[in-house]
Write a structure and sequence with these properties.
about 60 residues; alpha+beta; 1 helix; about 25% helix; Calcium binding protein from Anabaena CcbP; Uncharacterised_Ca-bd_CcbP
Length: about 60
């Protein structure tokens, strides 16, 4: 997870991008992520967050 101060408006997660010699980590809003090839635990966390947002919950 990204640092707390970066998550006040939206939950951010750190995403690792690897391709060839490129290895980069960047932050992305969890509500914008749609999993393609992730483990069950990660898919559940993303689905839970989409549900949380869709019902209007806030921090």
């Amino acid at each position: 997870m990204s640092p707390e101060d970066e998550c006040m408006r939206s939950m951010l997660v750190e995403v690792r991008y690897r391709e060839g010699d490129v290895d980069d980590i960047f932050s992305a809003r969890l509500c914008d992520i749609h999993p393609i090839n992730v483990d069950e635990e990660t898919a559940e966390a993303i689905a839970d967050w989409h549900y949380w947002i869709n019902v209007g919950y806030e921090f």
